Each structure stands twice: as C-alpha cells, then as structure tokens.
Amino acid sequence: MPVLLGLHLFELKGAFGKRIASVMGALADVRDIDAMLKILATVDKRSQTIGQIFDADRIAGKKHLVHAAKLALTAQVTRMNFADSLNIELVCWASGLRQIVRAFDRVGVHKGCNRVAILTIGKSREEVKRAQTETLRELNLHRDDKVLDVNSKKISTLMKAFDISKKELEIAPIEELVLEKIALLSLQR
Fold it and tell me: Which of 39, 129, 144, 151 is 20 to 30 Å apart from 46, CA to CA?
C-alpha cells in the first residue's frame, strides 16, 4: 500500500525497492505531443526520474496513477513487463491494456488536450519535486490539481474508456472499478 508523504508525494515499496511517486494536474495547450514528450524526457534525464503525461479526463484520481506506477515498477523488476521502457509501461498499466497503441489511445495525452495528469517517479523527494517544477516550467503548464478530481462528466468518460457499466457503478465507486480493471492486467500474461 502506498504511503502518503505529503499532499502529492507517495512512497512506494516492493520488489523494486523504494520509490517516490507524485501526481499533479495541470492545464495545457497540447499541440505537439512529440515535442512535449521530448521535453519531459530531457527533464527526466536531468532529474534522474521517470515521468509520463496523461489525459486527466481519463484518470480516476491520484490513486489511479500511483497504483499503476507500483504495478509497472513491479512488472519491470519481475520481468513481466509489456514494454521495454518504464515510461510506456506506465501507460499500459494506467490504461489496463497490454497493447501499447490502444493504451495510449485510452489514457495518453492527445492533440487538443487541455487537462493533463503528470506522474513522476524517482528515488528521492528532492528528485521528484525538482522534476515536477521543471516539467511545469519547461512545458509552460499551469498547475491545477482539480483536473484530477472525479466529477459527473469525468465518470461518464471513464465509464466509456474503461468499459464500465452502470450496473458495476451501482456496486462500487468509479475510482475502485478503474483500479480493479488495471489490476486485472496482471492476469493477462
């Protein structure tokens, strides 16, 4: 179980050792995805972190990405990963899909997207905080963690994206159903 270290920092422990993860939301004007990902990769290289950016409208809160991070880190260290890159592995786990292209379609940032979620993983709080600050600055993003909140519009989007029925939603909150969907990916090996 991830340990909350602060408002946005989580400590993850597992077969991969100990890592610090952070999730933040931001407002963006996504025009060039490749350029955005290159900048994120440059920030990661300087900060010694791993970061990924997602469509916030398809993310069921911070726990969604923290859970995906732990599963991706575990899959990588146990050699049960779907992708060679941890950045891509994070997208697969966050989407609950093995197929990389479909995973990016489900939760990846896309042209015209204006609400993004950014996951950063590192070995220390300092690395993660530095990477977050640089990511916001380098990508010219306005931090807004409210984009991570689940509201009625987002529930509808999540239901479609993750194939969740109204009947399932009567049984459990959407956040728990999405976590269950991504956890089920471990059975698809």
Answer: 144
25: nearest Cα among 67, 50, 4, 56? 56
In the chain, domain spans = 3-187
Give the model confidence (pLDDT) of 34-59 as tens digits: 999 999 999 999 999 999 999 999 99
Asked if 113 and 30 touch (Cβ cutoff 8 Å), the reply is yes
Instruction: State both tokens at 100.
Output: 């990389």
CATH fold group of domain 3-187: PF0523-like (3.30.2380)
Q: What is the pTM of this model?
A: 0.92
Cβ-Cβ contacts under 8 Å for 168 (sequence gap 6 or more):
177
